Amino acid sequence: MNFDRELQDRVNEIETIIKAYLPEESGWAKTVMEAMNYSVNVGGKRLRPMLMAETYRLFGGADKAIEPFMAAIEMIHSYSLVHDDLPAMDNDEYRRGKKTTWVVYGDAMAILAGDGLLNYAFETALKSFEMSGSDAGRKAKALSILAKKAGVHGMIGGQTADIEAENLGHQVTIEHLLFIHEHKTAALIQAAMMAGAVMAGAGEEQISLVEKAAYEIGIAFQIQDDILDVTSSLETLGKPVGSDAKNQKTTYVTLKGIEEAAREQREMSDHAVKLLRSLEEEGFQNEFLMELIQSLITRIK
Amino acid sequence: MNFDRELQDRVNEIETIIKAYLPEESGWAKTVMEAMNYSVNVGGKRLRPMLMAETYRLFGGADKAIEPFMAAIEMIHSYSLVHDDLPAMDNDEYRRGKKTTWVVYGDAMAILAGDGLLNYAFETALKSFEMSGSDAGRKAKALSILAKKAGVHGMIGGQTADIEAENLGHQVTIEHLLFIHEHKTAALIQAAMMAGAVMAGAGEEQISLVEKAAYEIGIAFQIQDDILDVTSSLETLGKPVGSDAKNQKTTYVTLKGIEEAAREQREMSDHAVKLLRSLEEEGFQNEFLMELIQSLITRIK
Q: ∠ CA(B292), CA(B294), CA(B299), 5° rounding?
């Protein structure tokens, strides 16, 4: 089967899993559930649950205990977008060609929907404890990794540094920018892959290797975002291009130039694949995961 | 020792526990950590961790494994206030006589601080898995209860229904109002007491009894809030009084009158104590908890 076909099949499987875990829209609090489901169903590449499932598969994981974690990480990713888009934050009206949650449901309900998704992510992941497959220790560890990488020492920390960088304008250094990318983007990629590894029973050294590879995948993925903001079009990307320049935002591209950024991005991506391929000696192999990682830096949206 | 003295001692113990679990303020994301810590340190009665600790004690719990959960539930309570106070929500500038988080740190940082506290609550509670005392099954169950009662089927659901009630004005029915109070206020009181019971190894019937008692304690507590909004003063309460009337907000007091509201409140509080006292037959007794519950409906702030 070719990669694109296989990718689409796996996206479809993930969509089914996510939908199964979203809340039913009913009762006096129906509106927040509608806003939550709207936010998740707006779409996306489902990259984080996919990386989680493929890393789980890499280490021999084969049962459904990973599924609540897959839904959970997509809920966390979605909530972060809902709150980022708020007028008090980035004030974005469109994402993936659709109106953002606050535009449709209002600011107050968008704040609650984001809170609801973050909280529901933990409710959902905790359902894995009631399922067979894996053990309670692994589940608690996977949950701890997810929580830490999503929090103030992870994604929320990156978002904080990003907001502070906006106030600094062009004084932002490469160290500051790498902190932002590491935390805002790479941390959740790390959480996805590390949780997959932990749930499949990977050892400490393997988890540490996965953390390093996921860091490089996350940074390479973010650089591709910065490149696309310069080179893509509104139609392809589903959101305005050139917004970084308009907002005088410092990016990897503004700091290093587009060619050097692309070169470093390829280097990181190749190195991540090399790291993961080193696990083949121990009998752990997943060709689809290797292709997926390489596809991230050639994606056009 | 008299009740007030004992209460103050226990508040002090809880303050020490909460402070020990708050994040250290450092690094590029320092500001969000400052805003989180400001939000929690603004004070409060620490009622939820206290009810949790006392219910844990009621069922014979004696070790520190409950402490991360105590800190976690106060973080959840604090985050809900930070987001409630935002201009896009209730637009409140003062709480407990101090400036609210968004007034000090701005809207964007207050949104992130709320997200940070909610996420950190789970990170913190998950630390209990690394501690001795209780077992992993109990910890996972306590965490699931906490997550559910804080989420869209609990506190966030209540907040949603509250916002929708504001749009309805005086058409709000007693059923709608009870839904709001049950979810916005009682759910987290239930989470506190149920998590305490679960962590101490209480059985299903005991947990169910605690859930019922906590419902009544939560509603009685909320009615006292509504009564104080009519009868108290700014100096005593630390926030403007008469705000419900000003906002044309439907409360238990506007629907039933102050005397009937006070009567029902006492009935619920007495019944909660009676329910919990029925556990004495099984050898479970905590006099301080009984006094604490009764004190809630005579409190003046």
A: 85
